[in-house]
Amino acid sequence: MMEQLTPELRASLEAIDFIERHRGLSSKYRADPNGRFEKYGKNEALAIFSELGYNASFNKKESFFKIVDKFPRYKFQFNVSLKYGSVELIWAVWKDELIQRSLGPWCIIKSQLDGNFEDDKIFLPIFRNYDELRGILKEALHMYEDFKREMLSR
After folding, report:
1. How far is CA 58 from the centre of its chain?
2. Which of 33, 17, 14 lies closest to 25 in space, CA to CA?
3. How far apart are CA 152 and CA 94, in angstroms?
4. What domain of life does the native source organism fall in (predicted)?
5. Residue 1 — pLDDT band, cuts 50, 70, 90?
6. 64-70 and 57-59 as β-strands: parallel, antiparallel, unpaired?
7. Is 39 exposed, middle or buried (0-12, 13-18, 19+ CB in 10 A)?
8. Residue range 102-107: average pLDDT?
9. 35 and 27 in contact (C-beta within 8 Å)?
10. Rounded CA gap, 50 and 108, in Å?
11. What is the pTM of this model?
C-alpha cells in the first residue's frame, strides 16, 4: 500500500491544480515517439536550466538533473530525468529534516491525489529538440515554484 499524502502536501498540490497542469504539460508535449531527441547534451541541458534561472547539477551515477532549494523548515528537491527523449519529473520535500515520502515522480503524485492507480495515466512529456525541452522545463519549474510557495505559506 502506498503511503498517503499528508494534509499539507495534498492541500498544496490541489491549490496549484497539479493534476490538470500535469495533464496539460503532457498533452502539449506528446510528440511522435519516433521523433524523440534521445542524444541531448548534458551541458546544453544545464545551460537551459541556467537560462531559466536555476542552478542545476547533474548526478552522473543516476543520470538525472537536480535542483535543491533550502528554507528554514523545508528542503525541496526537483529531479529531472531526460532518458530516451522523455522528461520524468520528480519532487521530494523535507520538513524539519524529515523526508515527506509521499512525493516522487509526478505520475505517483497524481495517483496519490486522485486515487486512480490504473486508469487515466498521464504520459511523460516528449521533446524533439532543445526548444521543446526548454518549454517543458519552463512550465514544470513554474509549477515547482507555485508548489513551494503553497507549502511555505502553510
Report:
1. 15
2. 17
3. 12
4. Bacteria
5. very low
6. antiparallel
7. exposed
8. 83
9. no
10. 28
11. 0.93
